[in-house]
Amino acid sequence: MSVEGPLWRALVAYRVLTCAYTTAVFWYGYDDMDHPLVGGIYLGVLGAWTLGTLGRVTSAERCTRGFLAADLTLALGGILLTMVVDTQERINQGAFTLPSIWTAGSVLAFAIKGGWRWAAVASSLVAVADLVERGSGAGRDTLRNVILVWVASIGIGYVVEVARISERTLARALQIEAATRERERLARDIHDGVLQVLAMVQRRGDQAGGEAAELGRMAGEQEAALRSLISGAPLPAPRTGEAAPQGPTDLRALLAPYASARVTLSAPGTPVPLEPAVAGELAAAVGAALDNVRVHAGERAHAWILVEDEPDAVLVTVRDDGPGIPAGRLAAAAAEGRLGVAQSIRGRLRDLGGTAELLSPPGEGTEVELRLPKRAAAGEVTAVSAGGAA
């Protein structure tokens, strides 16, 4: 339900009641006026206009700019016509203008239709007309009434603008909630059917070998892609040459392309925001660790990436089921000038203000733990060295 609806209905009632009140006030002072017949003709036009345009003030769509201009012109004309119809003595004593408080309805229509800016313009025009009509007789009461109409109309216009913004925000939130629920429903259906079938095909294909193994590999890739889609994983990062992202980058977006049939990515359901340069370096370190898995554990090795968004740090763990790294192998690789682990992984994390720990018991696979404190992730990136895989 729109907040504007009750305001438009209240405006319709206000215009009818104030028109009746204005007519009664006019007939009460009829005999004391200089040209009451002219005033009676104006009141007749005002009454016909009010009743004939009730449908115009029922919604913002029907209350057009042309109608508002004509409505305000009728109110301003009545205020200025009072100088002809009434006596100067009655005007100086504070007698009502011909449209009286009906004029406020015209100003309120501007406020509901266009907000506080439109209300300020309309109420200012009414204020000028009132001051002209009063002339030298304008006193404290006139100024008080002018300011009252001006402040009230602007206040109502501002409230209407805030209500419209709130309604749009609420509508957007409801759309997101509905889309999320539908996505979750589809994810359940897919998980209960398609994903289980693809996982079974992958396992049976690996066991059967030969052409069935290739079919299993393809099924595994499709399972990983579909699982990433239904879990809401973000799109991959821009390629080289594309516009750099503005603001924080979701680390999940940079790690999502690594997921495959043999690389399982587990990440939080909510974004893991980091500065773009920091996120890029952390993702590159993960890529270097996966390169080591392919080179040293073999193409058939399975790897797992676990992303944890802790209160004070971002933790990324890369683990594989390979044979592990023999004792002294990393030191020997560094001595030979192959600095994949030393520079591409540990060097990157060191320059970011984080740490990289490597655990590799023989025969039990390798685990690389990358920890980046959030206070370091919020700072600037220093010079980062890049090396090849060990």
TrEMBL record:
Keywords: Kinase, Membrane, Transferase, Transmembrane, Transmembrane helix, Two-component regulatory system
Entry annotated with the keyword Repeat: no
Classification lineage: Bacteria, Bacillati, Actinomycetota, Actinomycetes, Kitasatosporales
Keyword Ribonucleoprotein: no
InterPro entries (alphabetical): DUF5931 (IPR045975), HATPase_C_sf (IPR036890), HATPase_dom (IPR003594), Sensor_HK_TwoCompSys (IPR050482), Sig_transdc_His_kin_sub3_dim/P (IPR011712)
Domain of life where this protein originates: Bacteria
Domain DUF5931 as annotated: residue spans: 1-171
Domain Histidine kinase/HSP90-like ATPase: 282-375
Residue stretches making up the Signal transduction histidine kinase subgroup 3 dimerisation and phosphoacceptor domain: 182-230
Residue stretches in coiled coil: none
Name of the protein in its database record: Sensor histidine kinase
Organism: Actinacidiphila epipremni
A GO molecular-function annotation: kinase activity
Annotated transmembrane regions: 12-30, 36-54, 66-85, 91-112, 142-160
Cross-referenced Pfam families: DUF5931 (PF19354), HATPase_c (PF02518), HisKA_3 (PF07730)
